[in-house]
Amino acid sequence: MGERKRLLIIDDDPDFVEGISSILEGADYAVDVEYNPDDGYKALQTNPPDLLLLDIMMGRGAEGIMLARKIRKDPELREMPVLIITGIREQIAFLFPGEPVHPRFVAVDELVEKPVEPEFLLDRVSALLEAAEARKAETS
Amino acid sequence: MMKNNYRILIIDDEEIILDSCTEILAGGDYEVATATDGTRGLKRLKEFQPDLVFVDLKMPGLSGLEVLEEIHELDPTIVTIVITGYATVSSAVEAMKQGAYDFLPKPFTPDQFRLITHRGLERRKLVLDTIALRREKELLRENFAAIVSHELKSPLGAVQQNLFTLIDELSGTVTEDQLRRLERMKTRIGDLVELIHTWLRAISVDIETIKDNFEPVSVPTVISKAVESIEPHAVRKAIEVVTSVEEPLSPVFGDEVTLTEALVNIGNNAVKYSHMGSQVSIKAEEKDGHIVISVSDTGVGIPKEDLPFIFDDFYRAESGRTAAGGAGLGLAICRRIVETHDGLISAESEPGKGSTFVIELPVYKGNLED
After folding, report:
1. How much is the ipTM here?
2. pLDDT, tens digit (0-9, with 9 covering 90-100), for A6-31
3. Beta-carbon separation of A13 and B209 below 8 A
């Protein structure tokens, strides 16, 4: 271990971002932030993080979903753990009006609801990082 | 090219009527099909998908009334007009009571036939427009709710997130009193977020639509899922949630998710209005073809004057229970859920001693193997 893990947050709400990045930095993670999906994707390609925290409702709609799909198709990024942080309930209602809420609408590793308790967030992040680490150890 | 003409089906055992009607409508923007009896007519109807159907009331085989009933069953938006002899106007009235739009007495002139056809098709257009409008309104309502909720919830979420973080970061550096106020802010904002959810739920969901997905539901499952949601709140007040479920218990016919929601709502209320360290008990038993689920607490109770209104929309008790806050919608939603399941919800209470809420649902009588 030793080295600090690098996290990238892609979310268009700067206030919310400050809230969670403060928690993550407090737990000694290196945190980068991008405030829209396009810059986010560029950052992912030039400097892929150990874990991505992704918002869903950005820009004109559910642009976070598009980004998540793009990541899943990208062989370089596919193995990167993604934690979606979202106001799940109404956002799913927005995506699929009239349908029962189904959290597995896109292949991601984990979904948590905004706002998120600090302890819970750190829990999820370290669990995802460990799982990714274990996967890597298995394949190499 | 897609043809947008209206389609008209005429069902009559007299060939001469069929021929002359077809003749009268020829040259207009219609597609016309005919059938010489009810059985053929219904068969033709399914493939032809008409906008307007003329049905002779007196035919050998299937009667006109039976044909009408079948048509309305198949597609209630199809406009039907009955053809009848002068002597049988009373049966035409009977047909209209059953949903026919108009009647055409025999004999009739070409102009009369044209006129009534025209009126019938106008009716059809109105019916279709109304359906389209209603659907549009429904979509708008659902999307509106989702957008509004995003606009309201995002800022609150950002505030709440920072409060969470600040409370964490400031612990140890602020006084106990300051920390208490921060915690209080967190609670109030949390309540506000819940309130938005509840209101949105009330306006954005057409509860009737859950009926489309009804299936046999196991009551013990509903109870254990509900208890899972209630437990964390109960633990915080050191309240014990005790369940006793009679076995075996017949299933009910419904929607597991909303039934669980109703029970969670009632259970959370019980916890909310209970004293620290007390008990909330959830019981289920089968009685006279009904599953009876009761939730009892030994809490503050509900004043007699409030009891008749607690299941009304936006009703909030003036006295006693107000301290705990709430949207005044939770129980109204419960009532709607239970009633959509053909069930009954009721409450008994004695101020200072506690309350019991009872949900009664009819037992599922269908074949479970299906």
Report:
1. 0.75
2. 999 999 999 999 999 999 999 999 99
3. no
